[in-house]
Description:
It is a single chain. By secondary structure, the chain is α+β, with helices and mostly antiparallel strands. It is 37% helix and 30% strand. The protein has eleven helices and 13 strands. Strands 1, 2, 3, 4, 5, 6, 7, 8, 9, 10, 11, 12 and 13 form a 13-stranded mixed beta sheet that branches. The radius of gyration is 20 Å and the shape is globular. The two termini are 33 Å apart.
Amino acid sequence: MQVLKLEERDRQDWDAYVNASPQATVYHLAAWKDVMEDALGLRTNYLFARNGSHVAGVLPLLYVRSRLSGPYFTSMPSGVCAENDDAAHALIQCAMQLVGDSAAKYLVLRDSFRRWDVPGLVTDESHCTLITNLNEGPQAMWTKLDRRVRQHVRKAESGELEVLMGPQYLDELYPAYSEAMRDLGTPTLGLGFFRQLLSRFPVNFTTVMVRAQDQVLGGAFVAKFRDTLYNTWGGMRRASFPLRSSHLWYWETLKYGQQNGYRQIDLGRSEWDSGTFEFKKHWLSEPRPLYHQFYLNGPAKAPAIGSRRCQDLTYRFFVKGWQLMPLPMTERVGPFLRQRMPFG
């Protein structure tokens, strides 16, 4: 079993493996390498295991320079994609070696559907994703929704909110999304990142925009991969919350998926029993555990993720300060900061 770094000549073999692998997600596709390098300026190490001429697994890695936490390696969401334990272990061992050779502080295998039993890995199990099956028609799904959820959707519809889907809405959607992220205290990846995303993934990504007459309320970026839709980045302006814009966004996305032949929708990562988790549960979804696995090269404990970051006073001050910043400033500074924390 060889572990190699992705070269241009290997891209066809890489994506052929990803497109055929039951364990693969949209985040394993090779074009992410270009997005992360060109839009965020990150250094990438895309590793793949080869058994003879046969690709047996892939692990897309990013190298991040952070003054706060020190340099580290992170996988793309979904972590390792491998057809067997031998290939997975070979990829993880190679990633650990990269950490040691570069004096990085740690490696994180992010949002994995599987917990890998490799010595030296520390596992965090505080997150899950929620999956909605789309094997029934819109009317059957509608009747199964909670009564209050149906009321909220009807309220949005009666308020003349509309949902528009397509990559052509990016420039309209982005300012509302950016405002929503600022209000959450989260730096945005920047308009350039999403332009790169839609350019590099013309088949796999689109936008969902919620609008009230001429005012854009927010929306999301939705990924399409084989039989699955993915809710990736999204948000709504706070002023739209009473209009139940998020309920209409979710309902119309479910309808779109069912009507266009998708088998399921991945509603995205949440902490178990959080408010976001409870909201997503209402959409006929079932939780599926996610694992963050860390290899530590010096630190005594793994970095905090999710709400546990709020235990850090510096992080809380950052969030409060970011929420008070004017949007033009967050747009200038946000992408620079996200080079040091590409995933939350």
